[in-house]
């Protein structure tokens, strides 16, 4: 191998400027590392909270924990943050921590190849240019490629049609007959907003979600003043919410315990839905938690409206101005909104990455996507994934996982420096043992035992998305990299 010591353009390239990318950038700066650039395809930071602007868009995790631990926001207006508040929060973080000058807006990541000889990554961008860096951090988020369902005739629909993550605000839905396909986390937030305005709303449901009441309320001005003047009170509040959420994991590990929460959800439905036929249609047949458990106070009341139909017969086809269901019924619609979710495991499978010795990530992942601690991948030196495989949660805040991972990544860079090396790669044995144990734990948990199909599972039915443990266990394991699990290369 020939040695070429030309320095790379940047020490670190980060892709994405949502919670993951910004969190990474801030952690680098806190560690005194300033030589990095962020590639951001859009013209603003914010990731998912910039992209998703559908009516009613909010987070279903409490504001005080769905934020960086080092940057509490005493000003949250509600217990659960609204999309625009989260976006404003991320913008403030980018400014306050001096991240903005590092961001190349309007620059899309289009792939990367590892240069073995120079031990650096060559990162390609949408405009055809190439950047070199020592370490590459992917923080694109697991839920960013809209899933457009493969329904016959969908492209022949003549009215407006858009996905919830690409909401077309130019389309007037007032007084229109609107068809909504999907009943996941996004749909249950926008359906209550458009139902009162539409002439008719036909909701095409394939699988009903479990829905619990949302313990939301405005944060009083007194509380806000208290949090501002005595930051310790907000920290204590955050800690109490964290442990409350964390305790729910016991039911993910022991799915039988979900029955208690299922009873609560049924009671909640009974309160709002008086029609027993509709209640039957809305009652899930799988164990709660198998798909993401949703929270809402206005979804069921919206479905009880006289102008809303819940259609549970599967869709056969879409025609120019209607949706036809398998029972032959025709549902005329003027517009269709897709609340059909995202490509998750299959989006990762398509990552355009070539590692050491020309190894394509698709070949490395021929048996399924996996990483070590959701972060590093054998054969891909100095590649770091934030919110990579098996880091997803059903019970707590993803921002906690982002912080654990970004601190771990800086720990990896420190390890390389301490050893006087240029790159680090996780040992195959470490990655293997980690994933064997992880899949073993997942076997008994609700995602496998709950009798449902979900985006946590890949096409083989293997859970590639969820972290199978308590989040504090992830935190403990990512406190610092264990040198015996890595080879450091000079
Ligand atoms: P989702 O939860 O994956 O829901 C997609 C919905 O579309 C499901 O009801 C699914 O039915 C249906 N669907 C998909 N393909 C279909 C087809 N071909 N025909 C008919 N129905 C189809 O997607 P999402 O609501 O966008 O949420 C995705 C994830 O984003 C969530 O799980 C959550 O992690 C995150 N999210 C979070 C928040 C938050 O507040 N934190 C808000 C929104 C989203 P099946 O169930 O039968 O597959």
UniProtKB/TrEMBL annotation:
Organism: Wenjunlia tyrosinilytica
GO MF annotations, alphabetized: monooxygenase activity
Record flagged with keyword Oxidoreductase: yes
Entry keyword Cytoplasm: no
InterPro entries: FAD-bind_Monooxygenase_sf, FAD/NAD-bd_sf
Xref: Pfam families: Pyr_redox_3 (PF13738)
Top-level division of the source organism's lineage: Bacteria
Protein name: 4-hydroxyacetophenone monooxygenase
PANTHER family registered for this protein in UniProt: FAD_NAD(P)-BINDING DOMAIN-CONTAINING PROTEIN-RELATED, L-ORNITHINE N(5)-MONOOXYGENASE-RELATED
UniProt keywords, alphabetically: Monooxygenase, Oxidoreductase
């Amino acid at each position: 191998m020939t040695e070429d010591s030309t320095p790379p353009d940047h020490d670190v390239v980060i892709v994405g400027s949502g919670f993951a990318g910004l969190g990474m950038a801030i952690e680098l700066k806190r560690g005194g590392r300033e030589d990095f650039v962020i590639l951001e395809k859009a013209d603003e930071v914010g990731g998912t909270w910039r992209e998703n602007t559908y009516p009613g868009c909010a987070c279903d995790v409490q504001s005080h924990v769905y934020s960086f631990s080092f940057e509490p926001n005493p000003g949250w207006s509600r217990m659960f943050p609204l999309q625009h508040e989260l976006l404003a929060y991320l913008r403030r973080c980018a400014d306050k921590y001096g991240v903005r000058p590092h961001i190349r807006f309007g620059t899309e990541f289009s792939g990367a190849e590892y240069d073995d000889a120079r031990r650096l990554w060559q990162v390609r961008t949408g405009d055809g240019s190439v950047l070199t860096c020592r370490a590459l951090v992917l923080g694109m988020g697991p839920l960013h490629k809209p899933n457009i369902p493969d329904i016959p005739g969908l492209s022949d629909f003549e009215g407006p049609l858009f996905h919830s993550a690409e909401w077309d605000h130019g389309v007037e839905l007032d007084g229109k007959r609107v068809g909504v396909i999907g009943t996941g986390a996004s749909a249950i937030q926008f359906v209550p907003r458009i139902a009162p305005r539409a002439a008719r709303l036909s909701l095409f449901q394939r699988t009903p979600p479990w829905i619990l009441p949302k313990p939301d309320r405005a944060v009083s001005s007194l509380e806000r003043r208290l949090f501002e003047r005595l930051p310790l009170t907000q920290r204590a509040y955050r800690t109490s919410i964290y442990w409350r959420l964390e305790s729910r994991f016991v039911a993910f590990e022991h799915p039988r315990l979900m029955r208690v929460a299922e009873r609560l959800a049924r009671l909640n439905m009974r309160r709002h839905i008086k029609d027993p036929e509709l209640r039957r249609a809305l009652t899930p047949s799988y164990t709660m938690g198998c798909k993401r458990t949703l929270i809402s106070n206005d979804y069921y009341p919206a479905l009880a409206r006289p102008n809303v139909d819940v259609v549970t017969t599967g869709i056969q086809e879409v025609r120019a101005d209607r949706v036809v269901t398998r029972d032959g019924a025709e549902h005329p619609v003027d517009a269709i909104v897709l609340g059909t979710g995202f490509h998750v495991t299959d989006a990762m499978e398509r990552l355009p990455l070539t590692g050491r010795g020309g190894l394509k990530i698709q070949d490395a992942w021929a048996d399924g996507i996996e990483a070590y601690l959701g972060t590093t991948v054998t054969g891909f030196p100095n590649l770091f994934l934030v919110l990579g495989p098996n880091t997803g949660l059903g019970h707590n805040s993803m921002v906690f996982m982002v912080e654990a991972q970004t601190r771990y990544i800086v720990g990896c860079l420190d390890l390389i420096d301490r050893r006087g090396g240029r790159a680090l790669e996780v040992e195959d044995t470490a990655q293997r043992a980690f994933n064997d144990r992880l899949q073993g734990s997942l076997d008994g948990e609700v995602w496998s035992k709950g009798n449902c199909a979900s985006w946590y599972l890949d096409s083989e039915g293997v859970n590639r998305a969820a972290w199978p443990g308590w989040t504090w266990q992830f935190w403990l394991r990512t406190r610092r990299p264990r040198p015996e699990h890595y080879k450091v290369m000079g």
